[in-house]
Structure formats: C-alpha cells, structure tokens
Amino acid sequence: MSDLSILGVLDDDGDHGPQRRGGRRQRRGSGRGGGIIALIVIVALGAVIVFVGKGMLGDKFSTPDYQGEGTGAVQVQVKSGDTSKDIAATLTKLGVVKSERAFTKAAEADSSASSIQPGYYRLRKGMSASSALALLLDPSSRLNTKVTVPEGLSAKEIYALLSKKTKLPVQQFQLAARNPVALGARQGVTNIEGMLFPATYDFDPGTTAADMLKEMVATFNERVDLAALNASGVSRGMNWYQILKIASLLEEEAITDDFGKVATVIDNRVAQGMRLGMDSTINYALGRSRIRVSEAETFISSPYNTYRVNGLPPTPISNPGLAAIEAAMRPTPGNWLYFVKINKDGHSYFTADYNDFINHKNQAKANGVY
Question: What whole-number distance in Å separates Cα of residue 263 and Cα of residue 246?
C-alpha cells in the first residue's frame, strides 16, 4: 500500500476515493432534484388539464338558463298538439328562455306542464325556464278570451255577451250577422238566429266579430246533423229549419224535462191549424226574454205574434242546444194541445182539454206559479 493509498487519495482500484464518493453523492443528489421537479411539472400539467377539461365539459354539458323573471313583454303562441319540446323551441326562438334544454328540464320536473293549454300567452324576455313555465300555467297570463254561451239565448243576447267579454262593439256583431251565408249558414238562410251554437269558445286575441260568429256557426254545422234534422220533419210536413224553430221555442217555453211534450203540443197545434199562442214569441218581437206578456201585448202587430198569426214564427227565436234539438226531432207521443207551468221548479201540466187547462192555469195563478 503506498502512501497515497494511506492518505486516501487512491483506493484499492486505483480510483480517487473521495472524488468517487463525492461524485456519487453529487449524481444522486442531482437525480432526486430532477425527479421532484418532474413530479411538480406533471402535477401542474395534470391540474391544468383537469381545469381546462372541466371547463370544456361544463361548456358542453351544462344547461344554459337565464335567472329571474325577465323583462318586457312577448306574445307566445302554444299551438294545439305542441309538446314541451315544441314549446321550448318557440320560447328559445323568441328569446324568452336561454335554451331549449332548460325549459324541457323544467317541464320534465313538473307534472302539471302537461296541462298547458293551446292559445296565446304574455311572457317576458330573458326569463328563467321555471318562471316561463309558471306563467304558461297561470290563467292570468293567457291572452285568449273564453266565452261560455248558454242554451236558449237570442242572437241579440249573444252579441251583448260577446261584446262584454271581448270589448268589441255590439254593432260589429250585428253588421257581421247581416250575411248569414258568409258566416257558414246554408244557402237561403237570411237570419243567423238559431245557428249560433251554445258552447264554450276560446277566441284568440285579435279575432274579429265576424270570425267569432263563423266559429259558432261552424260548431252548429259540426254538432247538428242537418240531414237527420230534415228527415225528422218529413213525416210532419216540415223541413230542417222548421224543426230548428220548434227547438228554439222549447228553450224559451219549458225546462229540459218537458221539452218532448211541448214539442208535441206545437206539432199538434200546427197540424190542427191552431195558433200557438206563445208568450215567448211576443217577447222576442219586443226584444226581451222570459217576461210575462200582458193582454194588450198579445195584440201587437208582428209576424212573431203567435196569438194572432198561425203557424211557426218566421225564424227561430233563440239558439237551442242539442237537448232541445233532439226533442224537436223526436217529440214525446201524446194528444196534448195545452200546457201550463204548475210548479216553481218549472214543470208544466199537459192536457188536450181546454177547460182542464183553464182550471190548472187558475190554480197555478193562485199558487203564484204562473
């Protein structure tokens, strides 16, 4: 062993011991630092990737939706047969909601969404999907005008009702009614009375008076079988229009339970050449309804005065419903010629004997019924 080896300058292999050990430590230290740096870089890159990826996924899969109740006013139409997806497309196109998916999700979460009715609605721009859905389910936001026309009203009364509900002047309905054929009535009909079918109507905003009456006549044509109506009168020497007149009289003269019997009284009187003598026709001539007629009024000069003029009135005197029309088509068999209301619930007494009729009429007066 040389002095150099004793001093540790050379090891047994002839290498510089301290330098080798020092070199080895240096290399190990350099490797560990590089690994830490690499790890930091990888973690940082991973964080960046996660952050960016999350943003990208968020952009792709989140549901864009406005917040709040929105501003301004937008008129939205929901058409018959529209699904929630159809409505969502309409709302998105008009700028009411931010995305179709937002509204569709809101509708899927609320079972009442299936009850949205066709029509026009007042909504706002920039609404949250849930707020838009709430307005579509709120009747007060609906712009359509719903009108229920009961059975037995005259055309004059219907015009007044429609005017009150729609704010259109009565004169517009009167003007439109001057041409019944243009409204859908059959050729030869000169008076729309009797063909404004009683039902509940849902008029879109902006519907004209003429279009409202057209819809009512169209409903009459759809609900009433004119061929059957006409056939029912053939054996009685009448046509469909005369049967319609009888139906209109039933609405004014009786309650539903007695429709069939009153129709028989009318048939029997017409067949025997007797005057109908009905107060309802005089009231119609005087432009009123269901008011007791005085003796003096039975002498008015009018083709509707069935106390003085034989046969049926020139036109229907009201707009009858199906129950009255069906009773006019199929009168209850009987020989009755007279009837008088004897109960406050509206039921009448029927007889073929005039004296019997007078006795019951006096009794009804005494009881405050007639």
Answer: 7
